[in-house]
Amino acid sequence: MKIAVAQLNFTCGDFENNKFKIIDAIAQAKSQGAKLVVFAEEAITGVPAHSLLVRGSFLDKAEQALVEIAAFCDDIAVLVGLPIRRYGGTVSAVAYIKNRHVRKYVTKKTLAGDVDAAYMTSGRGYEYINLAGEKLAVVVGADFMLDHDFSDSKTIVVIGADRYHQGRIEKRYEKLAHKAFMADANVLFVNHVGGSSEFVYDGSSAFFNARGGAVALLKSFEEEIRYVDTEDTENSIEVPYQDKIANVYCALKLSVSDYFRKNHPDKKACIVLTGGIDSSVAATILVDALGANRVVALQMPSRYSNDHSADDAEMLARTLGIQLMTIPLSEIYRGSLDTIVSAIGAPDRKKLEVDFQLRLRTTLFMAVCEKWGYVPINSSNKTELAVGALTLYGDTAGMLGMLGDLYKTDVYALARHINSHREVIAEQTMLKAPSSEMQLQENGEQTLPPYDVIDAILYRLLERWQTHDEIVEAGFEDVDVKLVRSLIYGSLEKIYQFCPIVEVSSMPLDKSYVDLPIA
Length: 519
Description:
alpha/beta, 20% strand
């Protein structure tokens, strides 16, 4: 049986465009002689929908769109996801459409790990459909990982909405191959692709045969409609190596592109260029995602800036072909600082100066964005956020944190990836090794170990959930582990107030994932 796998980029709540995308894919599938076309989980509504899932008007629009879609399903069957009312709440369901009628709903039972779990109710789980003489098992999302006996089905169709994080694609392939082999059945998985809120959906839909071999692998981070045949599964292909940093770059580019397309289609991005590695990487990705004509950079030299930083920022702007605005801070800074001192007396000047300059820079940054309607983009990294090496209401500001889920060492890896194609980020910027001692801007007396040590400890604490003793046994200094752990807890107030970040790790630093009380 020929099946069309429709891996598409949907927008949450954009029922009209989502509906037209689905109908267009159905028309294409019919023209190619497919018997069935499958779409991702909650394709009609887009994901994630959060509290919209408990609003009656939202669910009504989804079902109305389903009725209109069904009208185009003559001579072809369709599996398409949407939320529906069942069992005293909202469930994630897959509608099975045949001959213009919804014949069945398959509902999701497992909600563990679902970002919308708080607004959903468990359904019944997988069910079977009979089509073109074949019996297909239809499974929604994580229900696929439960122990089921699919022995009487030749093909298992998994309708998913699986988010990207580093290492996710290869692990997903491994699970699909293992399940196919254990069930002795073909496994067809269809996923969302695109950026939505903080999340990135990587696509990477796949078709594996009963021996666990890959028969078809759809593109990662791109829309695609691919046709597979359940009768033609003998020839398997090699699963390609997944370059972690290349995938992270693609994820960030897709997220930024969709963030602007879905939220600010006519606006430009604005970023502060400091000449450092973080803002250089962020600006490069912005240009790749949006085009140079939609990116504006600000340079704000001050008494703490050096000539190299200004030169590096200007060189990058020329290389990228973006507009660079320069607003000197020194005079404004001196006048503002004198005004504060005259009002409140002489504070700890050493502690005040750096933080105040960053907050002043952000005030000017936001003023420019307000004046011209630009979208302010944050380029702070995960390491700085985790240990509190950021100034609250200073370099924590922005509408989107592009690098907020990347350790400092990851940012350098991204820069090397960028320069592997052509030198975009200047050599002197690349060679500025991370400081061996990072000064905490709001605690100037305390210093931290080198970035590579901090990042290794953070990774073990945040993403592997290792204990203090386990990390020390791995070879790290006891004093360093204690310091980093204490700084994470001390940074919670900043984490809670940081801008939304593009999530590309298994443990992003936002309040929903950290889930720790401030007190």
